[in-house]
Amino acid sequence: MLKLEQISKQYDNKVVLDNISLEINKGEIVSLLGQSGSGKTTLLNIILGLTKMDKGRIIFDNENLTNVKMKDRGFNIVFQDYALFPHLNAYDNIVYGLKNKRGLVTEEELKEYINFLELKPHLNKKISELSGGQKQRVALARTLVMKPKLLLLDEPLSALDGVIKESIKERIKSIAKEFQLTTIIVTHDPEEALTLSDKILIINQGSISQFGTPHEIIHQPKNEFVKGFILKQLQIKRQNIFHLFGEQYA
Ligand SMILES: Nc1ncnc2c1ncn2[C@@H]1O[C@H](COP(=O)(O)OP(=O)(O)OP(=O)(O)O)[C@@H](O)[C@H]1O
Ligand SMILES: [Mg+2]
């Protein structure tokens, strides 16, 4: 279980995160949902250990990680721009992080990840020869082979559209469930958050507006921000989600 306790962060005397506390169970997918500048990436980077918080604690499986360095936390992130190495082919990108960690995965496991993400036909291709969805899958594979204890994804779907977006979404879901991998995903798209996650953390200007299941967010919005910003956007897209939540929201 991941526990965030009263995390706060300021940049130049401006509060960016204010007293964020929440608990995430093993294998759960949680979306961080909020407008641009609300503090989503900052929170993700604090969990990863890339950014230092001013106040608060991070506990993972009963271990206090607050002062533990990024490389010793055992978490891993997929950045929005994938950050793949253009001079290496898909396969070499996937195994890059294993260079100094031989034995972390067996050949068998490596094959399993590659097959699971349907990357076998693309292993010898250059990064420039891959589509957006294929690059995203290579970035996911590269992260998964490191066997992270926590998977962090910063807007993994925003560069994708339509069918490809749906297929990556389904894959993220099955990875979390099959490997019981706790996953935190940043998004600014309410529809994406509602259809992808077990729970959603709605952030407004650095504070928690609501933390709950998609059902709770839809049926019991806690305040005007959730009602206004989130539900208004959803009404625009309601055709796409009404089948999930019943006729009355169509
Ligand atoms: N290194 C930094 N130095 C100073 N201010 C920063 C720094 N990083 C972020 N900020 C500020 O903190 C606030 C939150 O930024 P953050 O990147 O966490 O937002 P976000 O929710 O991820 O936004 P977006 O959806 O646009 O990616 C913003 O006002 C931003 O300008
Ligand atoms: Mg961001």
Folded structure, characterized:
The protein is an alpha/beta fold and 250 residues long. 34% of the residues are buried. It contains 10 helices and 10 strands. The model has no long low-confidence stretch (mean pLDDT 89). It has 2 domains: 2-74 and 165-249, 3-Layer(aba) Sandwich (Rossmann fold), CATH 3.40.50.300; 85-147, no CATH class. The protein has a 6-stranded mixed β-sheet with strand order 6-7-8-3-9-10, with helices on both faces. A 4-stranded antiparallel β-sheet has the order 2-1-4-5, covered by helices on one side. Helix content is 37%, strand content 25%. It binds adenosine-5'-triphosphate (ATP) and magnesium ion (MG). Residues 40-41 line the site of magnesium ion.
Helical proportion, percent range: 25-40%
The fold-level CATH name of the largest domain is Rossmann fold
Taking strands numbered 1, 2, ... along the chain, how are they ordered across the largest sheet? 6-7-8-3-9-10
N→C terminal distance? 36 Å
Largest sheet: 6 strands, mixed
Oligomer: single chain
What bound compounds does this protein have?
A: adenosine-5'-triphosphate, magnesium ion
CATH architecture of the largest domain: 3-Layer(aba) Sandwich
Q: Determine the structural class based on helices, strands and strand pairing.
A: alpha/beta
Separate helix tally: 10
Strand content: 15-25%
The CATH class designation of the largest domain is Alpha Beta
Query: What is the H-and-E element order?
Result: EEEHEEHEHHHEHEHEEHHH
Mean pLDDT: 89
Q: What is the 3D form?
A: globular
